[in-house]
């Protein structure tokens, strides 16, 4: 995975306001003895025009935080705002519209439609919403991402890095207030991963976008302006202007300084300094 962050002028301007905000954000899965507290009264401000990374051990609540901030998941308690709009309490239909109109998403598995070419994939969410893309903006995004020569190609005719660039362009196409990227480099080799991180960086620095990225990779986090560290459903630390080395060092504190995760004890309790286990993949307890 990418380790080296190139020199860049981070956060070209001072952050101008708050793109998203949470207060007392709590998310519990399950009930009774099997309750898992995925987020424990989290307060967070996501600065507009900045690149924020979210890191933490497996099961610390990174994806849950992203899903709650993006209105993809309901909260158990607390409040979430996108800009000035409180999204907690919105009906599903209103949330769908809000996500469609104001948020861009990038996932590890690019989620491109195989039968559509790159250009069609990029504008698909806007086409579904019946919105006309701003052609000038779209051209800027396409050129910034170096996709001009690939627009007629289908996903199968593109490399992994190119596919993720298309996914990045799709997230940017409607000029959303906020882009959420969940492990956007997770499926890429290190060169393609670096490229995508560079483009996310450019989206922030040159296009004025706001990006929140969940990642396991200190190298990827090193491209951000601010890293939020989650543990046991709480934000336990943050780092401005991170470097990969500093992030790696900070992450070592979660692993008892050994570099290998400290295991949960056989009694299943999360003891201080241990990392709670996540539910087995594919079989989460639904609430
Ligand atoms: N649908 C669900 N049902 C029950 N528990 C869940 C569900 N989703 C997440 N959890 C639990 O909530 C906690 C936080 O999970 P989350 O996926 O947010 O962590 P994460 O930091 O993103 O983990 P990873 O790095 O492994 O992706 C974990 O203990 C997890 O098992």
UniProtKB/TrEMBL annotation:
Protein name per its UniProtKB record: ABC transporter ATP-binding protein
Span of domain ABC transporter: 20-257
GO cellular component, one term: plasma membrane
InterPro entries with a match to the protein in the record: AAA+_ATPase, ABC_transporter-like_ATP-bd, ABC_transpr_LolD-like, MacB-like_ATP-bd, P-loop_NTPase
Keywords recorded for this protein, A-Z: ATP-binding, Nucleotide-binding, Transport
Molecular function terms from GO: ATP binding; ATP hydrolysis activity; transmembrane transporter activity
Pfam families named in the record: ABC_tran
Composition skew (Basic and acidic residues), residue ranges: 278-287
SUPFAM superfamilies in alphabetical order: P-loop containing nucleoside triphosphate hydrolases (SSF52540)
Keyword Transport: yes
Region named Disordered: 257-287
Species for this entry: Streptomyces acidicola
């Amino acid at each position: 995975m990418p380790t080296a962050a190139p020199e860049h002028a981070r956060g070209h301007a001072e952050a101008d306001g708050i793109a998203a905000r949470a207060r007392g954000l709590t998310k519990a899965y399950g009930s009774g003895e099997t309750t898992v507290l995925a987020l424990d009264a989290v307060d967070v401000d996501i600065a507009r025009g900045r690149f924020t990374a979210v890191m933490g051990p497996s099961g610390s609540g990174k994806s849950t935080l992203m899903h709650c901030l993006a209105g993809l998941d309901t909260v158990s308690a607390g409040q979430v705002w996108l800009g000035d709009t409180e999204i907690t309490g919105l009906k599903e239909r209103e949330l769908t519209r809000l996500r469609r109109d104001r948020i861009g998403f990038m996932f590890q598995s690019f989620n491109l439609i195989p039968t559509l070419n790159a250009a069609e994939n990029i504008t698909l969410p806007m086409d579904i919403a019946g919105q006309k893309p701003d052609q000038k903006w779209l051209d800027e995004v396409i050129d910034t991402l170096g996709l001009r020569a690939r627009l007629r190609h289908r996903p199968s005719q593109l490399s992994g890095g190119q596919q993720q660039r298309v996914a990045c362009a799709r997230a940017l196409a409607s000029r959303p207030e906020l882009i959420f990227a969940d492990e956007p480099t997770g499926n890429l080799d290190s060169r393609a991963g670096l490229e995508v991180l560079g483009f996310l960086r450019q989206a922030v620095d040159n296009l004025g976008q706001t990006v929140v990225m969940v990642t396991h990779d200190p190298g990827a986090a090193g491209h951000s302006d601010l890293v939020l560290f989650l543990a046991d459903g709480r934000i336990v630390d943050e780092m401005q202007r991170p470097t990969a080395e500093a992030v790696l060092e900070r992450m070592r504190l979660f692993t008892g300084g050994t570099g290998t995760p400290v295991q949960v004890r056989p009694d299943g309790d999360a003891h201080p300094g241990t990392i709670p286990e996540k539910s087995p993949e594919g079989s989460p307890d639904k609430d």
